[in-house]
Amino acid sequence: MHLVRGMLEGARAQGRAPEPLLRAAGIAPELLAVDSARVTSAQYIALFRALMMALNDEALGLLSRPIKRGGLELLTRSALGSRDLEAALRRVCLGFTVLQDDVHTELVREGALAGLVITAHPGTRPARFLHEFLLRVMWRLAAWLAGGSLKVQRFEFAFEQPAHVNDYGLVFPASLRFGQAHTAFWFDAKRLPRAFSRDEAAVRSFIASWPASVIAPKREREGMDARVRAQLQHHLQADERWPGLADIAQSLHVSAATLQRQLAASGTSWQALKDELRRDMAIARLATGLTHFATLADELGFSSAAAFQRAFKTWTGSPPGAYRARLLSEQG
């Protein structure tokens, strides 16, 4: 829940109660106190939108002055007409400096790498979540400017390694360095001189996808983990039965052993991907209906309702009954 808590920091600093914002996103406020609780991507995106509209601030109240709605579009449009990616990124850095007073953004080179560096101004102490948030926004914007993908070599953070560091791999898929003088992401400098080809139609499409394109972006490349998740969803749409490892391996034309090795190389496993999808489906079903736990357990491929309830508590920190009861009470 650290991401949800971080998103709410700006609103709380302005004296706003978080409960209405959480309810608007379909998140039970009580879950804020549960470290192991999880929310779906859809709920996370809904919370971002609720905060952005309530505060009229695309920086969610995390900066000393708001970036009013339209700020991201302004940054994006500032890059139009650039000759190459380097010129586009430098325009974006300059534009962001104009929009706020708390951090400085700069495109730099370090040997074979180029980096977009975020440095706090003297006398300011931006919240840790602001570093995470700005890094994600700038990276996804840079990826869009680069044509849709930009492989990062490493991410750097201007704070010490947090307790929830294991969650970072899902959001920042590269080498991580903490305790740095600045927050930054680094990529192959050979990308900088490539021609910039984004146009007005592309800008409109990118802005229309905000904030989902930043919070839950499509994968830059289809790794085996993404292919497995896609196959799981495909099987579930075509058949009520949950597929097994052998079924997915056959669909991908590899052996089960090869599939497991490739998933391990991606930093995940068959069970982890299966549980991730089951968790998201369970949360969505509990939030929208009164399905019996036995039925839900069967839909999610569990041997019994008790097995499902144990797994759900492991995933979210709350039993499914208590989780649904809180949702229903909050919804009135």
UniProtKB/TrEMBL annotation:
One of its GO terms (molecular function) is transcription cis-regulatory region binding. Keywords: DNA-binding, Transcription, Transcription regulation. PROSITE patterns: HTH_ARAC_FAMILY_2. InterPro entries: AraC-type_N, Homeodomain-like_sf, HTH_AraC. One of its GO terms (cellular component) is cytosol. The keyword Lyase does not apply. Residues 226-326 form the HTH araC/xylS-type domain. This is AraC family transcriptional regulator. It comes from Comamonas serinivorans.
